[in-house]
Design brief:
heterodimer, A: about 325 residues, alpha/beta, Rossmann fold, Alpha-Beta Plaits, 2 domains, 4-stranded antiparallel sheet, 11 helices, about 35% helix, B: about 300 residues, 2 strands, elongated
Chain lengths: ~325, ~300
């Protein structure tokens, strides 16, 4: 278990946009979040991982201001901003769509824009920008309840971006989407980040999405189980793999290393890249056709928490 | 100062946007809309199948021999009673159904979306109240219009002031029903609770307000208990405003005052509170005061609401 820490900004130009110190939340006798501290830097893609019941939703609801905390501090916005009017700084894409199913896309977006004081020409301009970004102009007059899952998700994202928030919270945004829609959404989010420097706070059970994050926090039982960049976490919680082809299993067994058959080859587990190099150099006759790969975020999650993150456990 | 004004204008525009959204949701959501019309429809079926005939026969039997009462007048009187009963239940049950949007928004998480935005919770609560009031009154106005057309065919005896007073009473009762539903719905948060309360109100309110059967036909003990519910006075106001013209016409053809008073009393146009006749002004006062108290409670609920 790692110590809970708040990252200190390395440069004056990079500020923490969310700071959580010693956060505690209990539901009766159940400790949902216990003495949790972490920070999110301005402009980064922050991944917040954990199985069902780890405390992710509790933390998100506290950040959004819809749930009270029992102890600790939560600051949203850079340090020189007041901690009020948090809602105007946040855009949230919820796990399930919260749009009005019996209203059209246009009616939904017009109503939600009004909540942020965006009316008339300003709304038309923003709507046009979002249509350009997400490509939903052709479904503006359609009832949300009749849209496909992917189309609805696009509108969810459009709703969250209506007021150009500084922080976008994505609570498992791509669950159940086809790969193409998932790719489109990430492309849009990436474009918006590039254009506006928006911070993205992501929870997901797709580890390949977390692997692209600037910083990852893995939550387990309301506490931080692991924290760092994906690279740091991989170095800390996983080893390397050498996948070797064209060699008999008997010869690899003679090396006395842990291995498994994999797709026509044999995958050998080594603690790190240095150990991989050492093994290859020592037995060059065996390693003529091979590849060395690092462990992935699935391995990190499994080793840090002892649990596997799947669509069911991650909800 | 100008900052305060700008904020106020912003809040008003947010309020109107939410009211518009809530009204649209009610009329576009077929489930909500048709559920709201179940109770008035039940009442219509009850009257057309047997209640109408019972009232018609009862009024005819009470007439002194030798007095010729035109059929149009009897139909006008029974029809006015039907109209007032439908409006009396609609103003409350439609309000409950329309205001279920508040609960549904909690169940679907939509309200979290609103609460994350910079909207004040009081603005949100007020928008639900106003939208329910508008939707319910619109449905009641439509019901009243259909009823007026029906009365024009079977026997129209209402004056312009009777119509205005009837609509005023409907509006006040709608305000009352909306406030009551706001307080009750405030505590609900799941679809199951929506169904349970919806069924309870739809089936029960028509009885306890005297729309299905006049309170005068209940046991004296039950009558005394029901006299503490403001809905009774609203139903009575609606009935007296709707039937005033027909009773005027009955008096004009020579029906004795005692007979007219008896019929009025039997259909709840006049009420007695522990033996004392309740004046029309007192009925309006009870309705207005109870509405004001309910609205105050609702505002208080919204103001003291804390995050979990």
């Amino acid at each position: 278990m790692e110590e809970n820490t708040v990252r200190v900004s390395e440069s004056e130009n990079i500020k923490n946009i969310i700071e959580i110190k010693n956060l505690t939340k209990n539901y009766g006798n159940v400790k949902a979040v216990s003495d949790l501290s972490f920070s999110v830097r301005e402009g980064e893609l922050f991944a917040f991982l954990g199985v069902n019941g780890a405390g992710k939703s509790t933390v998100i609801n506290i950040i959004c201001g819809v749930l009270s905390k029992d102890g600790g501090e939560v600051r949203v916005g850079v340090s020189d901003e007041k901690n009020d009017n948090v809602g105007a700084r946040l855009g949230v894409v919820f796990q399930g769509s919260v749009l009005d199913m019996s209203l059209t896309v246009l009616e939904n977006l017009r109503c939600r824009a009004a909540l942020y004081g965006i009316h008339g020409e300003a709304f038309k301009k923003r709507l046009s920008e979002l249509c350009g970004l997400l490509g939903f102009e052709d479904i503006l007059r359609r009832t949300v309840g009749r849209l496909s899952g992917g189309q609805r998700r696009k509108i969810d994202v459009a709703r969250a971006l209506l007021h150009s928030p500084g922080i976008l919270i994505l609570d498992e945004p791509t669950t159940g989407l086809d790969p193409q829609t998932r790719s489109t959404l990430w492309s849009v989010i990436s474009d918006v980040r590039k254009m506006s420097g928006m911070t993205v706070f992501l929870t997901t059970h797709y580890m390949e999405e977390a692997a692209g994050a600037d910083h990852v926090v893995i939550l387990d039982g309301g506490k931080i189980a692991a924290e760092g960049t994906p690279q740091e976490l991989k170095n800390r919680y996983t080893g390397d793999y050498i996948t070797v082809y064209g060699v008999s299993e008997e010869k690899i067994r003679e090396l006395g290393v842990k291995y498994e058959p994999l797709g026509g080859g044999l995958r050998i587990f080594v603690p790190n890249t240095a150990a991989a190099t050492e093994l290859i150099v020592k037995h060059t006759e065996l390693f003529s056709d091979y590849e060395v790969t690092k462990g992935n975020m699935d391995d990190v999650f499994l080793n840090a928490t002892g649990k596997k993150l799947t669509e069911e456990t991650g909800k | 100062m100008s900052g305060v004004n700008t904020n106020n204008i912003k809040n008003i525009r947010v309020y109107f946007a939410l009211v518009r959204r809530n009204v649209l949701m009610f009329f576009k959501d077929k489930g909500l809309f048709f559920t709201a019309l179940i109770t008035p429809a039940i009442l219509l079926v009850l009257y057309s199948s047997f209640l109408g005939n019972i009232y018609r026969d009862s009024i005819l039997q009470s007439m002194p021999s030798g007095l010729s009462v035109p059929e149009k007048l009897i139909n006008g009187l029974v029809g006015s009673q039907l109209l007032s009963s439908i409006l009396a239940v609609s103003a409350v049950t439609v309000a409950f159904c329309s205001n279920m949007l508040m609960v549904r928004d909690k169940a679907t998480g939509t309200v979290t979306d609103f609460r994350i935005s910079p909207v004040k919770s009081q603005t949100l609560s007020l928008a639900y109240y106003t939208a329910t009031l508008i939707s319910t009154f619109a449905v009641c106005l439509f019901g009243a219009l259909v009823g007026f057309i029906y009365l024009a065919f079977v026997g129209w005896y209402m004056s312009f002031s009777d119509v205005l007073l009837l609509l005023l009473a409907v509006f006040l009762l709608t305000m009352f029903g909306t406030a009551l539903s706001s307080i009750v719905n405030f505590f609900l948060s799941t679809q199951g609770q929506i169904s349970a309360v919806g069924t309870l109100v739809s089936s029960g309110y028509g009885f306890i307000c005297g729309a299905y059967m006049p309170i005068a036909s209940f046991s004296s003990g039950l009558q005394k208990v029901l006299m503490f519910t403001p809905g009774i006075y609203a139903t009575s106001l609606l009935k007296s405003n709707a039937t005033r013209g027909a009773f005027r016409a009955l008096s004009d053809i020579g029906a004795p005052d005692a007979l007219i008073d008896g019929i009025k009393s039997s259909i709840d146009c006049t009420l007695t509170f522990f033996g004392k006749k309740v004046e029309t002004g007192a009925m309006y006062l009870v309705l207005c005061l109870s509405t004001a108290v309910l609205i105050a409670v609702y505002i208080l609920q919204s103001a003291v609401k804390r995050k979990r």
